[in-house]
Amino acid sequence: MNMLKSIGGGGKKEDDKDKDAGSGDEGATGEGGDPKPSDSSSGDKKAGGEVEKMKRGDYMIHVYVEQAKNLGVDEGDTVDPMIEISILGEKKYTTAKDDISSTGIAVWNEHLFWEPKNQEEVKLNKGKIEIKVQDKGFFKDAMIAYYEFDLSYIYLMKDHALMHKWIIMSNPESDDFGKPTANLKLSITIAGAGDEQ
Fold this sequence. Notes:
By secondary structure, the protein is mainly beta. It has a domain at about 55-190: Immunoglobulin-like (Sandwich), CATH 2.60.40.150. The protein has three helices and eight strands, in the order H-E-E-E-E-H-E-E-H-E-E. Strands 4-1-8-7 form a four-stranded antiparallel beta sheet. A four-stranded antiparallel beta sheet has the order 3-2-5-6. A hairpin with a 2-residue loop joins strand 2 (about 80-85) and strand 3. The longest helix has 6 residues, at about 120-125. The N and C termini lie close together (about 5 Å).
């Protein structure tokens, strides 16, 4: 299984065939920005109609961080954004981008990998993918935006993957935590032993 190929990575430009309304510049904060499918029964089905679930074992989790825009920055200010992703207690980071304004676009096209081994079923099915956009500081990083997925939500999607989707993020530490503070485009693939991609 070639996970780089399945996510379309290797530093390629964004997929021109991306047709969801949330992938366009105007629609990123609109109705198409939510990556959740409208049909809640989108999980993979076994032959008998039973929905697959994450089972004990080894997994490969691949996150392809593409770009961010509409960062919650005051007029005239800039930030040095980086992405922090935590999965099953292990954190990984993208590089920091310099001097991005509220109208600027930060482009990463970076691949991050996790390989959790011999994970318990309960831990996997309660596990989260926590995504933070941070303003890289000299001594301390400041949160710009936050979003989380359940591992099982991604795993139950078609091909165990969320592909080239925009997510609308907010800052739970701010006074107006419901206000969008970033749009992030990414892909996530989760593969367990014996999974086909």
